[in-house]
Amino acid sequence: MATTKPNPEFQAVHARLRAILAKYESRALPALKDEPGDYVLQGPPTPASRGRDVWFGGVRTGKSYVSYHLMPVYVFPDLLDDLSPELKKRMQGKSCFNFTHADEMLFQELERLTNRSHTRYQEEGFLE
């Protein structure tokens, strides 16, 4: 049985996206998963989350792209109001951004969006 080798560029993309998200890892937002190709930040339930775990985001390497999931933009879609058309093109669904190669300008925009998202989660009581 032949194995498909992962795209070597995906490792660098995953590492860069993971670094964006890892800045927010804390006691209130621990890493649920931290494995090669799969990183997830999820916090415990809060009153604002109505007893559900607070899923903040994750980075996952797939066969065709590296996905950056950012749940606050699903919960608060107004966070996307000033999204550039270039980053908007990377969106799949309501809270996922897909990348096949490194794009530092888009990564910097994603860093700013992630920071605003974290701040919003704190303000709205999703993180304690």
Could you give a short description of this structure?
By secondary structure, the chain is of the alpha+beta class. The chain has a single domain, classed as Aspartate Aminotransferase, domain 1 (Alpha-Beta Complex).
Q: Which shape, going by the Cα principal axes?
A: globular
DSSP strand count: 6
Average of per-residue pLDDT values? 94
CATH fold call: Aspartate Aminotransferase, domain 1
Looking at the overall shape, the CATH architecture is Alpha-Beta Complex
Largest sheet: 6 strands, antiparallel
Percentage of residues in strands: 15-25%
- CATH domain class name: Alpha Beta
Radius of gyration: 15 Å
- The strands making up the biggest β-sheet line up spatially as 1-2-3-4-6-5
Residues in helix, % = 25-40%
Distance between the termini: 48 Å
Q: Please give the oligomerization state of what you see.
A: single chain
> What is the succession of H and E elements?
HEEEEHHEEH
Tell me what you see in this structure:
- The chain has 128 residues and is of the alpha+beta class.
- The chain has a single domain, classed as Aspartate Aminotransferase, domain 1 (Alpha-Beta Complex).
- It has helices spanning 8-22, 72-75, 85-88, 104-123, and strands at 31-35, 38-43, 54-61, 66-70, 91-92, 96-99.
- α1 (8-22) runs parallel beside α4.
- The radius of gyration is 15 Å and the shape is globular.
- The termini are far apart.
- The mean pLDDT is 94.
